[in-house]
Design brief:
single chain; alpha+beta; 9 helices
């Protein structure tokens, strides 16, 4: 098993770096920022509240409307996701389901065939498609190929510390797939603009956009975020080398996010993440597996082999 373990060390570490670079940001799953109570933009968007009898529907700012969207999306608790992640020369596609009912949890399968690491990972994963489970405390990567055939563990567990080390301080690798956090980050920019009506996956949706800069983060407490949340957001942006982050969301008639896109320049290259959402309320099972090995144990085995 010595040769196999050495391969596992190199490949798993590469996979960890790949995943963490593509999806890092907010490190606190349970303390999502509160939505703002004041408008942060002047353009009008349809009111989500029913008007009083005989009254005309009132227009509200995009920021106020998106506050209502966070509430509706939060209440939905889960959704199916279909995401495309590009960072520098790396491209990954993911499908699965995400829950934000009590912290972020997910069951996702990533297609890494567009990544330079795909071939290197095959001896450990058994192919380009890799299953990931995100629980409240850790991330698990499904093993395959010769590792499992030789009687090795079926999963590798990455602790929060492992994820933070790979991503420069962030421990929430799932933030890119969270529609609620995406809208709240857009609101935090303080410059939300309504682009207009578009069709997304066959649904009518309203497109909103904004750019979050370092200066905006410093003022985010006025947009409903606490000082601690602002500091965490700034730390994560600084760790990724991001000075400007463009965020776009598309919202359907039910005030649910149907698409989110985030674009920024990072230390690893241009980042472009697009996530489509459907089937809100779908069940999500992401229980921690029992047959796993910790990343730290793999590193120790590789050092002594």
């Amino acid at each position: 098993m010595a040769g196999t373990r050495n391969t596992a060390v190199a490949v798993v570490l590469a996979a960890l770096a790949l995943t963490a670079t593509a999806c890092n940001n907010n490190d606190d799953k349970s303390a999502a920022p509160a939505a703002p109570t004041t408008a942060a933009a002047t353009s009008a968007t349809p009111s989500a509240a029913a008007p009083a009898t005989g009254a005309k529907p009132q227009k509200v700012s995009p920021a106020v409307f998106l506050e209502q969207v966070t509430q509706k999306t939060s209440a939905a608790k889960s959704a199916k996701v279909d995401e495309l992640i590009k960072v520098g020369e790396t491209t990954m596609k993911g499908k699965g389901a995400v829950s934000w009912a009590d912290g972020l949890e997910a069951d996702l399968t990533m297609d890494l065939s567009g990544s330079p690491m795909a071939k290197v990972m095959e001896p450990v994963t058994g192919g380009p498609n890799v299953r990931y489970l995100y629980t409240k405390d850790a991330m698990f990567m499904r093993m395959g190929g010769k590792i499992v055939q030789d009687g090795g563990p079926q999963w590798v567990r990455y602790s929060k510390a492992d994820l933070a080390k790979a991503s420069g301080g962030s421990t929430d690798q799932l933030q890119s797939a969270d529609p609620v956090q995406g809208v709240r980050t857009l609101i935090a920019s303080g410059k939300v603009t309504e682009v207009g009506q578009e069709t997304v996956n066959g649904k009518d949706a309203t497109h909103y956009t904004g750019v979050l800069s370092a200066a905006d983060v410093a003022k985010a407490t006025s947009q409903g975020m606490t000082q601690a949340q602002v500091e965490r957001l700034k730390k994560n942006l600084d760790a990724a080398g991001v000075t400007s982050d463009q965020i776009d969301v598309w919202v359907d008639a039910d005030q649910l996010v149907v698409k989110r896109r985030e674009q920024a320049e990072t230390k690893a290259g241009t980042m472009d993440i697009t996530v489509n959402y459907s089937d809100y309320g779908t069940p999500v099972t992401a229980s921690a597996p029992t047959d796993f090995i910790d990343l730290a144990d793999i590193q120790k085995a590789g050092a002594t082999s």
